[in-house]
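Dear support,

We are seeing what looks like truncated structure output for some complexes. This example has two components. We would appreciate it if you could run it in full and send us the complete token output so we can diff it against ours.
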Amino acid sequence: MVRLVFLGKFGEMAPAELAEVSLPGEVKTLSDLQNWLGHKAPLLARAMAATRTRLVLNQEVVHDLSRAVASGDEVAFLPPMSGG
Amino acid sequence: MQETGFQVRIVKEAFDPQAEAAAFCAGRDDAGALVSFCGICRKDEAVAELRLDQYEGFTEKEISRITQEVAARFSCPDLLVIHRVGVIKPGEAIVLVAALATHRANAFEAVKVLMDYLKTDAPLWKKETGSSGSRWVEPRAEDYARRKQADKPEAGAA
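Here is the complete output from our reference environment:
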């Protein structure tokens, strides 16, 4: 199982069943995961594509979408941040 | 100079920024300057309350990383960041950034640059709720411009 965390506005768009998912065998990388989300939750995927979205894998920021994702991982999707 | 190092806290309850700043510099008679900035939830007809979401664990880790970077860059190790999360009412403090240093210049610079970074890079998400409904707040173009400016070597120079 892979844990998916959707922050900010993404959290309101993500269907609850996406919090913990069992990924099909062909989903091997973060890029595959994004494509898979495009089928599972097209509205959410469109919102992510339309803004600056950062990915965090096991609490570490990743820029390389060819990074592998496997059972036990936690992947977070971060919309633009607004602290302060 | 004696150092207490940097402190970063994410808090879920209202805090007293003046008491926190006082505690931060208590007993530090070796420091010649305390600079602090406090961001407050502004009363506004359109905003009845503000909600700040964090990514548990990651948010504190990232703000600590940013704070450590600023501490090293301005040779100002004594930095304090307290950031509120959850539902915040008008008049309550959202963020407190403070720097303690031998002289004022580094302390001013460190606080300014740290705030510019927090506006765009701190993993926090702000939602305003008011008379016309709710909306997620995103950094403005000027926030990104300040963030970019803060990266330059001469940043903060007053």
